[in-house]
Amino acid sequence: MLYYVLLWVVICFFWWKWKAGETLNKLQLEGKYVFITGCDSGFGKLAARALDTKGFHVIAACLTEKGEEELKASASEKLQTMLLNVTDAENVKLVAEKVKTEVGEKGLWGLINNAGIMGPSAPTDWLKIEHYKAPIEVNLIGLINVTLHFLPLVKKAKGRIINVTSVGGVVAICSGGYCPSKFGAEAFTDSLRHDMKPFGVKVSCIEPGLFNTGLSDRVRVVKEKRAIWNTLSSDIQKQYGESYLRDDAVKKEQLVKMCENADPTLVVNCMEHALMSKHPHARYTVGTDAKWLWLPLSLMPTFVQDYVLMKNKVKLVDPNAG
Question: For a FRET experiment, which of 183, 215, 238, 290 has its CA 20 to 30 Å from that of 268?
């Protein structure tokens, strides 16, 4: 009996791999438009250039004019750029109208919601509500608003929506607004995928692990944490101890050395598959750490998660001080 079960599992695996490998041909992809947010740097910039070389009509949204100029200098003349701040509702509406005029009756084949920020990462009792607002407004509210404005264009093309979330959307790897925003983006992506099935629109979620991008700039993270520390009451500083920032930085550096992935094109490859495969995955977990640490950890009992995650936290000097 076990033999037949194993045989069935092997057959299903190879069928799944074959199905996932079926791609649209060049004729089917010709002339298709793809809109990408957050193209100033990181995954967005790489994706815009890669999809441009694949023959897509790429419309890359950048936050700054400098980002636009740098991207145009490294891509073909066919690539278009637009300035977009995903937290500015009026700006989102105007850009959506421009894209509607550009794509016409073809509609929009691909919408890649890539724009995101980290925001301050510090213990919860250090933070104020303002520290949570920025990442939630960009990573969640901005993503939802862009999607809602572009959804009619994607439905017209029976296209694809790809939301870049994070392993921080399946397990709370840090404190602050980043993980809540990514958990929310995961939930929105799931409900969107269900709602769009009748329209032939396929929705995918990309969950990168730790990559060396501007999002995870350790110098900036430490600087932000130091600035918050300087505003804390003496009671909280006594609870954590003067050496907390130094010890925390050491632990985070150790985690980065263990988990960081060197090749950001792995994420871009997933975007390409989600756009070009006849059967894109609902989820793409990207990076060695994501596949072998964070995703398995998210499936484990809470006490196991707590034990592993607490290993990366600094022991407080005196929790009862004050």
Answer: 183
